Amino acid sequence: MSNVLRPYQANAVDFVRAQLRAGIKRLLIAAPTGTGKSYIINALVDQLPGRVGVISPRIEILRGIAEKRGITKTKRKELEAEHLWTPICLRNRIFAGLDLVDTLIIDEGHHATAETYQILDAMHGDTPVIGLTATPYRSTPNETAKLCEYWGAPHVALSLPDAIIHRWSALPRVEIRGLCDDDQVKIQGADFRVSGAGGLNEFTGARIEAIAELAAEIWERDPRPMMISLPSTFLVDELMAHLQIPACAITQRTKSADRERAFADVVARRAALVQINVVSEGVDLPIRVMIDAKPTLSPVAWMQQIGRITRPTDDPPLYVCTNRNIERHAHLLEGLLPSSTIYEAQQAFERPPARTGLRHFGLEALGRYKAVNVPLDGGIMATAYTLYDYDNASGQRREFFALVLPGSTATIFATRLNDLSGTEPKWGRWRRADLPDSLTGYGITRSKMPCSDKQFAWWERDARRVGLDPSIRPSKRVFAVLPVLMQLRLKVLTPRAEVVS
Question: How far is it, in rounded angstroms, from Cα 24 to Cα 157?
């Protein structure tokens, strides 16, 4: 392979080789979308000993890997000759007698806990397995915990901020258009219900004309290739019937040859692309404008989708959000979005978010608890968790606190131990803490009662000193944030949502 690796790509290859020499059998490498993980894969294929097999969930991704190796014929037979398979294809070939590879590489390694991948893992026994992904987490805290258990902690080859700084990735310019308040949509399983009463088909369908008008506006003023994402085939058909701009739809029904023609029209800007999941994970097209009309609770789905427009470009790509996805997932952009965007997203709808919660890597232990909105000075909302564990025998009550800052991965953790065994409670002082792997036994502090007059006076006097909004009368649960920040001597700073001691 003649491609010259970037420093982080070469470092990732060296890291994998060193870990394999040390006897490590499973490795997950993380780097942002569009930063060339396929070049890392091809370098590993060339440099690791024995037969190296590569699996990826989409044939389009495998074709891209093959083309970077100089393989121009990318039919399934040619891909298999290069040891490139989809997981199901490799499983079937092994059942048919194909010899196992010496090292297995999983592109889009966040899928590794799915059933087919686990079957392949069992088949390969002690064979080293290497994963690469832009999203080292799953859609729910429990699924993320399983992924971490399988891979261990991911090795971050390149962070998103570093990718932006070096122009290996492009940060989108964000516009907020509050058309679809998905807090009104029912949840089914780990994401929004699509069909049926209260589902996305019904809810988004009622706003399809507004989405069509928005598409026409964006098409007129931005001359770059454009994509519109929707939750279902039904909504794709509905939008196509209302659009007043040239467009092509790609769904699971679209044949391969028709997809290729549609892609060519989109790249040449003869048409806008209307799709669900086809242009999401691993597909490399020069899309520069995206209208997001596809609400999702999944950080993986959102991050993989927005990754389609973050390929390097001189003119920042445009992401237009019609729902609460920015409000919900902005932290995945690692603090890169300006606070004005976070504020606009939080103000786009009449009501504050009803489904505040954490679903991304590193905070799995909090995932099952209900958070509370905390107004920061300047108007932005943070989220807080106030938990307790009471020991009846000793009369001790341990409290745990977490404050999660909007649009950022920054989180404040604290704990204190109170003695309630005597006639007068003895309240401990808050101190910094780490998030434990498990919070089993902890309950949530549920009080929605307004704070007392004494507490309100304290809030009015000192809230601004620690970065909180002094103009509200908080509930007791929101008020709890004030003494934590004061005792830790921390201040939440806006507009950048920083924390200083």
Answer: 17
